[in-house]
Amino acid sequence: MMEILAFVILLFLTLRTIVSLVNFFSRLHLPDKKPSSFPKISILIPARNEESNLGNLLETLHKLEYPDFEVLVCNDHSSDNTEEILNWVVGEDDRIHWFLGEKLPTDWLGKNFACHQLAQKATGKYLIFLDADVALSANAITKAVAFFQEKQLSLLSVFPQQKMETFAERLTVPLMNWILQSLLPVILVQKTPFPSVSAANGQFMMFETENYRTSQWHSKVRNQNVEDIRIARMMKSESLKVAVLLGNQDIFCRMYRNFNEAVVGFSRNMHEYFGGARAVMIGFWFVVCSGPLLVWAVLGWTFLSFFMGLVIVNRIVVAADCRQNIAWPVLLHPLQMISFTVIVFYNIYRRFRKDSEWKGRIIKF
Q1: Which of the four, 4, 209, 252, 263, has the lowest number of CB atoms within 10 Å?
Q2: Helix 2-26 and helix 174-183, axial crossing angle in degrees, nearest 10
Q3: Number of domains in the chain
């Protein structure tokens, strides 16, 4: 029985490595193309206590080469210097506007309500929702519009190239891409109609305005903590075209600055990487963390060497595809598995606790 389990673990790792190679050779990056037309774009930014991020994002938006766009920021009752930053930037660029969000209704989560308000005020043909910790290259929007038009999409979501400056970030942030790109052939999000084959990232989500307002997507997920993936699933269930790309060299993000922020942030939605099933999340954690020991104990050193070779290939391929330094994921893999363990069990703890604090608000689970 244990021998069968060890071989199943080896097979699972082999399949995940194949998936990572499929994603690598699919080259799912924003193509360097011009759109057929340049309609007005509404760039929409929900912001709550974003004084450390917002200035950098707005500076990159100021440098965009796209000819016709507006930037709307919803100040979601920030208690830091977000408002002061907005007032200064608005004076420098008349394309940028902000407003104070309405009082949060009891049946909404803050980000979803802010996005809903932003969409109602937008005047562009396309809506692009950005998190405040994102930054864009000068031609990122041009490329996104071209791809959106060419593929006749209803939703384009982009996973930004992650910036990591501290050791704590390198212990946690690469886990997101590693899980996604070794479990899901991302091209299938676009090529198949199945809602179960969905992915999205709220850091960059682009919609066609008419479709968004007809369906009111954020209203439909008003109390959902992981709104991005749920919206993608709903759209595919309505036979709408969804695509996911990597933002390499065009869309960047620095998500967290220390270990505690990363654990709290990733634990909010880690189970959604596994279809919302915590049992599957726990099973995956058990396989990837105990797999080497089990393979060694049951099958010996030869199979363990094969196992570790696959792990190294897997980590290098995913890192290269995401434009990350390929050495860190390999060298830090054991420590990243400890980080993954902390995130998984904090996710479980929050589920039993049924609430958590995020940016000064209590979120129910």
Answers
A1: 4
A2: 100
A3: 2
